[in-house]
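Exercise 7. Given the encoded structure of a 595-residue chain, write a plausible sequence.
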């Protein structure tokens, strides 16, 4: 079987086109064989000492790596700090020691068992971005296993620029990449929202992830084409195909330069209609990336990370310090903080909740917060304190009734009184928003608007709940259609309710960052869009090349169509007709990286 022009498919994780040769990295360490220690205290102490020594070495290695980071990687130094923290957290550190001491497991097997428990905790998380944070714990696990097995860390160094091919790359390994040595990378695992993908995006290193059997199909020295726009890998391309991709690469570089110019310009249509393009973030350190790409603020600050990375509940002070860093860094732009959007069964803490058959429809988000009032009050207090340091908005996720937003606001008012008694500063007029993520909220939007200062439409959940589609289920994923007539009608209804109540309406789901949908959303009346930072320049570029009247015309016609197929065909044809030079590269460049 010839390998000439062999095509492998994956997920585009960082845009760009590369023609080069592969360097395949060895597979990482897997779980070690199990053996049981003797009852001898000396043997158990020796095994405990071996594990602690591995932790000590891993911490020293990470510190050295952090201190040696080149300037272009300094904004990602926090990823190494996270791994240093995970080394000593209970979920890995203490549990492994307990298993060595009480179950008399060898260090490798004890570590493997501790890692399995962590994986179980993350299994039911629906949000792919939060779910992807398990990569930090996995990297610590694999680093420790490598040390225990006496294996050397992977080296990305090469005498000439290559395309790295690996089963997976950790953020620590990714920070070793330089454009002079690494043209791009291909991995079998990972997703668009992984920290490794984010590093590649910020450094503009093309990447494709999720390529099945890449390390088996590709050999070191193979010539290949990496298309980070479509997720396609072509092995041993012939001269005709290579010539075609070289031309496409040149065209893309010119296009990318034109788009980049839009990032620092206002997101205003050709007929002077103002819009706002904001960034979705999860960590304080991601603010720099948002500012780099021209964000008008933060439209979604996910606040789950501190609750997921440690066994104890974060304190008010820990939360406040994180929120303040974001608010001060973004000054004078707005920061929209979403309160905790996770169920109690996913905390790496002592909270005891029975497993739920369907966590997505269970005790999560505002439901959980209104049940665990002390946890909620602590977070609200930290958010209010941060509001004294800049422009802050708070929004409550998964609102499905007027009672929920009234109860949440009542708790917020009680926290304000506490702060006044303590003499701590805060913004007494901090805007309060409701996230519209379930059909019930759409139906009640006119009533919810009386109790909210703004709306934010979370399309990721809204679409899957409205269409009864699990978007991460491959069997039905193709039925997840943002331009479904029902979805467009719901967006229009929410916008109308907001307009009547004279409150702004934003969107922070994946739909907001897709160039194909942006004109439709503008036409429907959504003038504030929040997305992954990397998608911002493209969004601004499109908005600056259309009039609001054109956008409204597209939306009106789309609303008259009956089937999702008709809507998709019409919008695709219309946008391609109006912006052919953008949509040759534009949708894959931005939409494939929206979060």
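Solution.
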């Amino acid at each position: 079987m010839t390998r000439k022009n062999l095509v492998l498919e994956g997920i585009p994780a960082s845009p760009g086109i590369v023609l080069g040769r592969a360097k395949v990295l060895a597979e990482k360490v897997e779980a070690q064989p199990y053996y049981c220690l003797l009852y001898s205290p000396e043997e158990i102490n020796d095994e405990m000492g071996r594990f602690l020594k591995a932790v000590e070495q891993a911490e020293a290695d990470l510190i050295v790596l952090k201190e040696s980071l080149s300037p272009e990687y300094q904004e990602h130094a926090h990823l190494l700090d996270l791994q240093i923290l995970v080394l000593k957290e209970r979920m890995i550190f203490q549990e492994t020691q307990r298993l060595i001491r009480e179950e008399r497991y060898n260090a490798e097997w004890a570590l493997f068992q501790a890692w399995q428990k962590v994986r179980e905790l993350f299994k039911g998380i629906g949000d792919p971005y939060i779910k992807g944070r398990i990569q930090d714990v996995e990297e610590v696990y694999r680093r420790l296993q490598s040390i225990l097995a006496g294996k050397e860390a992977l080296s990305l160094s090469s005498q000439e620029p290559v395309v790295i091919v690996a089963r997976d790359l950790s953020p620590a390994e990714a920070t070793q990449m330089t454009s002079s040595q690494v043209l791009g990378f291909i991995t079998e695992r990972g997703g668009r929202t992984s920290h490794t993908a984010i590093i590649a995006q910020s450094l503009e290193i093309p990447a494709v992830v999720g390529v099945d059997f890449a390390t088996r199909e590709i050999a070191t020295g193979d010539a290949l084409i990496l298309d980070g726009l479509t997720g396609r890998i072509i092995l041993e391309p012939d001269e005709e195909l290579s010539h075609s991709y070289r031309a496409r690469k040149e065209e893309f570089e010119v296009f990318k330069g034109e788009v980049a110019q839009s990032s620092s310009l206002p997101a205003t249509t050709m007929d002077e209609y103002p819009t706002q393009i904001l960034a979705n973030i999860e960590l304080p350190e991601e603010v720099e990336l948002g500012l780099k790409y021209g964000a008008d603020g933060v439209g979604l600050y996910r606040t789950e990370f501190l609750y997921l990375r440690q066994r104890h509940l974060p304190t008010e002070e820990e939360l406040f310090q994180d929120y303040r860093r974001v608010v001060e860094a973004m000054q004078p732009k707005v920061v929209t903080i979403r309160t905790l959007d996770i169920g109690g069964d996913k905390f790496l803490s002592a909270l005891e909740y029975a497993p739920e058959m369907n966590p997505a429809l269970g005790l999560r988000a505002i439901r959980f917060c209104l049940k665990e009032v002390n946890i909620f009050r602590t977070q609200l207090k930290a958010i209010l304190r941060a509001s004294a340091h800049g422009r802050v908005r708070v929004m409550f996720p998964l609102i499905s009734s007027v009672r929920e937003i009234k109860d949440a606001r009542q708790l917020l008012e009680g926290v304000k009184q506490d702060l006044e008694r303590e003499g701590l500063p805060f913004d007494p007029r901090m805007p309060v928003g409701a996230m519209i993520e379930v059909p019930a909220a759409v139906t009640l939007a006119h009533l919810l608007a009386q109790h909210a200062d703004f709306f934010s439409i979370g399309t990721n959940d809204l679409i899957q709940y409205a269409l009864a589609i699990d978007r991460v289920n491959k069997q039905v994923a193709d039925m997840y259609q943002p331009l479904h007539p029902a979805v467009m009608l719901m967006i229009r209804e929410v916008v109308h309710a907001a307009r009547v109540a004279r409150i702004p309406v934003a969107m922070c789901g994946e739909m907001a960052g897709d160039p194909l949908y942006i004109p439709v959303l503008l036409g429907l009346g959504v003038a504030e869009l929040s997305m992954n930072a990397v998608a911002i320049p493209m969004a601004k570029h499109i908005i600056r090349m259309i009039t609001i009247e054109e956008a409204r015309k597209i939306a009106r016609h789309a609303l008259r169509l009956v089937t999702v197929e008709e809507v998709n065909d019409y919008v695709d044809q219309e946008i391609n007709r109006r912006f052919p030079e953008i949509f040759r590269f534009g949708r894959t460049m931005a939409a494939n990286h929206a979060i």
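Remark. The chain has a mean pLDDT of 85. Students should compare their own answers with the one above.
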